């Protein structure tokens, strides 16, 4: 019997949800799992290596010029982390929530809604980390990590994946039909294209720059780019803070939503 107060929300066992996800993944097609990893790699090879020969060097927000491939590679690193985290925290959660009816069973045990929320988000984070680590290896092979600080991009992408997974699950908890899930792609595509992924943010008018700077992906792109190029600045702490707030809000809303759906 679950008690009141904190115990009604948290049993301290989110790893049980992660373990369940890993066991279920064994029966999944690894070709489908890995497909999300190859998309940013293809962008890097086609645009960064191919088009980069014609473009040459590009000026970063810090005023330093770097090869075009080294400019877009850290952006695609952030995209890779986002893709992995979003896939699991949206489509997988949507199925479990509306068709698999798994969360009712989980919450009938000692697990609380915060255990379920954090467990699912951590599982989604794992895919984001796997995608980003693989992409980081590709960058290293191609010589696109320009500074020793590039190693710090891995904990940075964990933060990025955590942020997107948290918000992704919170938003998905309100989705009722497959048509609603199309809204996620409607948001992700323009964010992918306009978050200074392929060209500097300075190409936009100032009012558009303000909109782009509100995108979570832009903060991830700038954080990753600063670390892989070695162009560090105090503004990077703002990017970190943005994701910390994103994680906190995502966990809060997901926990409250699960409790409303299944316990209240």
Describe this structure in words.
The chain crosses the membrane at residues 30-56, 68-87, 121-144, 150-171, 183-201, 231-253. Belongs to the ABC-2 integral membrane protein family. Its main location: membrane. There is one protein chain. The chain is an all-alpha fold and 264 residues long. 72% of the residues lie in helices and 2% in strands. It is built from 10 helices and 2 strands. It has helices at 15-25, 30-55, 68-100, 102-107, 113-141, 153-172, 178-194, 206-212, 216-229, 235-262; strands spanning 57-59, 65-67. Strands 1-2 form a two-stranded antiparallel sheet. A hairpin with a 5-residue loop joins strand 1 (57-59) and strand 2 (65-67). Helix 2 packs antiparallel against helix 3 (68-100). The longest helix is centred in the first third of the chain and has 33 residues, at 68-100.
